[in-house]
Specification:
Two copies of one chain form a homodimer. By secondary structure, chain A is an alpha/beta fold. Chain A has helices at residues 16-22, 46-54, 74-91, 105-116, 131-143, 241-247, 258-263, 273-289, 291-310, 336-348, 373-390, and strands at 35-36, 98-102, 123-128, 147-151, 172-178, 180-181, 186-187, 199-203, 220-224, 235-239, 316-317, 328-332, 351-352, 363-366. Chain A has two domains: 30-44 and 293-390, Aspartate Aminotransferase, domain 1; 59-287, Aspartate Aminotransferase, domain 2 (3-Layer(aba) Sandwich), CATH 3.40.640.10. In chain A, helix 2 (46-54) crosses helix 8 (273-289). Chain A starts with 15 loop residues before the first helix and ends with a helix.
Chain lengths: 391, 391
């Protein structure tokens, strides 16, 4: 559970002229920017975008954009290797772990996980707590025999299991779970410790780097970058020595092999250079401010501000309290008409992309790492006013 | 063969102050930019980068970057669907053809081609004319039984076959070839018409949109975007109705299925939004100027300027004259020492990334669509002076 904590938002001051000319909604954000509650791709830090803009036609005097340079040249190699090293540092990953940056989104990992962790005579066990776990399970079933060790489908994907709820088979090769489900807004809020010595695979696309992950509890963590780390087009894959060992036994085409990517430091083909560069700037922004230890309590505070309003009674939360997501807060107004009115009025006030996922409906407030704390205050205030007027 | 043609370079005029402050090499390019001969990623049009820069923190008043917006929202949907439609227009692809924009580079297509075109009792036939065809063949062999219908390995990958040279098997499912090999600088310079009614698959990563392709001669054309269409991180895949029909029969995971991507207009997962946006700007730039009919003769002229110098005798070209690439011009100086001297002196003069691929050595002059014609004049002049001083 997210506990409300003391701590004021940090407001950044911008030159008045910049605000005067473009701030249509009076939000106090630079460049006429609005509060973007998108569930992904999500908001990026303003200073990361500013640096990218400054260097867009000529990166640091090289005479060309990062988008135009050879991926085999020294300039890009520095950008690339620094991004990988900083990601390793942010995660606290030991040197014998693999840290990859690939293409294809988390969705391609849904296929690559069964391929790279294939074990003769064993089968994967999946934990299904929502939209993303469900999709991954579907892909795995196309490729191999799979056991579903736990599903919260019966209660509308509103919860994650406790450590001892999933029922694993004796022949389990790996356990698969999704640390945070963005559609339902369901979060384990912990590093799960399942009762098995099988490999543990986690899709952490929506909360990697938002809190500390204890890597000793995982063998594979993969994550699309576009929620908590950068723009769409990069997927980070973290591999334990055990996972690397299993993957090394497979014979796979270049772009489907973790081993080949790992050996080439993820320059096994032309990488998505600009997207990796943007992730690199994002990692520098996190590290400069204090890393995951800095951002985690800010994320807790942001979520707590909204859950506090939900607990006042007008809104009804989707997830059970024990698994309320810090990243995606899902709730409903008393009627569907009010849900629509809420989203429309919010949009008109500069609060963008608040409608819930089509499969769940209602409202979804997504606030990833780079979403400013002032926006959590602003949406909480808007929610209270909306409840007062429509209650 | 590329014929020298009359036609002067079109020089664009920029404000003098912009040049004065940053033009270290006196090249006359804006923003201190240099001539970038990278074989990929390659140069982008200056005005495409300028537009991206202008909109980087707030795209057209939406209050957010293209990198931050939901891929399910109207703004991104417009960007995405316009890019697909303009690519279709540039290629002249009929409505019943598939036009996809995927992730994973051309390299992922090396695996997806055999998966999506699997036919019971048949096998693919590959034509191997260099580095890329060779890699693709290697991946295909991991997945299925393959016949090599032609290889120019014996002559150092210096040529492409005539239409009747490849020897196909009676059970051929598809013929695979690479329209332009960037490492050797070997180009078919035509739409090949092979003596088979099998599907025809072409990796056109390095020359799609650089000249007209007669689509009636192909079933699958795929291409990484980073040479002739945009930045790295997008792969365009063009599919004939026949290819779509075969692909529809396969049962494949989401990210490995052409069919699933096609049905979802390439928004089957979170697309690489910013990279697709950049391709979209590139397509608009091509269309505004006259499309492929406009750029093709410019590309011919650029290449001809360099081949003319090679034919003067000091430099030795790698490819046979009949297959000299318009995109990648590969040659050697009389000695390896002179190759190195050439690359170093060129670099000091603002001509970047001219060293040949490590497997071939020598010099490689790559000039894709967005590489300015003035750069072809400049490198030709440099080559003549270098030959005079060192001859």
């Amino acid at each position: 559970m997210v506990a409300a904590r003391a701590g004021a938002s940090v407001a950044i001051r911008y030159p008045l002229t910049m605000l005067e000319t473009q701030d249509k909604h009076g939000l106090g954000l630079p460049y006429g920017r609005i509060y973007n509650f998108s569930a992904g791709p999500g908001a990026l830090p303003v200073e990361v975008l500013e640096e990218a803009k400054d260097d867009l036609l000529n990166y640091k005097g090289t005479g060309m954009s990062v988008m135009e340079m050879s991926h085999r040249g020294k300039t890009y190699d520095d950008i690339h290797m620094t991004a990988l090293a900083n990601l390793r540092k942010l995660l606290g990953a030991p040197d014998d772990w693999g840290v990859l940056m690939l293409q294809g989104g988390a969705s391609l990992q849904n296929a690559m996980v069964p391929m790279n962790l294939k074990m003769e005579g064993k089968r994967p066990n999946y934990i299904d707590t929502g939209h993303w776990g469900h999709l991954s399970l579907g892909d795995a079933k196309l490729m191999t025999d799979v056991h579903v060790a736990y599903s919260s489908e019966g209660t509308g994907f509103d919860r994650a299991p406790s450590d001892d709820e999933p029922q694993f088979t004796p022949d389990v090769s790996y356990v698969y779970y999704t640390s945070n489900e963005t559609v339902g807004g369901v979060d384990y809020l912990r590093d799960a410790t399942f009762n098995t010595d099988a490999l543990v695979v986690c899709d952490a696309s929506s909360n990697i780097l938002s809190r500390k992950f204890d890597l000793t509890k995982y063998d594979v963590i993969f994550a699309g970058a576009q929620k908590t780390q950068g723009p769409a087009g990069v997927t980070t894959v973290i591999l334990s020595p055990r996972a690397l060992e299993v993957a090394a036994q497979q014979k796979l085409p270049l772009m489907l092999s973790w081993t080949k990517a790992h050996k080439a430091h993820s320059i096994h083909n032309t990488p998505p250079c600009f997207a990796i560069y943007m992730c690199g700037l994002y990692y520098q922004w996190l590290l400069k401010n204090g890393g995951v230890d800095w951002i985690a309590p800010i994320n807790e505070r942001k979520a707590a501000k909204v859950y506090e309003v939900i607990d006042e009674g007008f809104y009804k939360g989707h997830a059970v309290k024990e698994n309320r997501s810090r990243m995606n807060i899902t709730f409903k107004c008393p009627t569907e008409e009010l849900d629509k009115k809420f989203a429309d009025e919010a949009e008109a006030n500069g609060f963008s992309t608040l409608a819930g996922h089509r499969s769940v409906g209602g409202i979804r407030v997504s606030m990833y790492n780079a979403f400013p704390e002032s926006g959590a205050d602003a949406i909480a205030q808007f929610m209270r006013e909306f409840a007062r007027k429509n209650g």
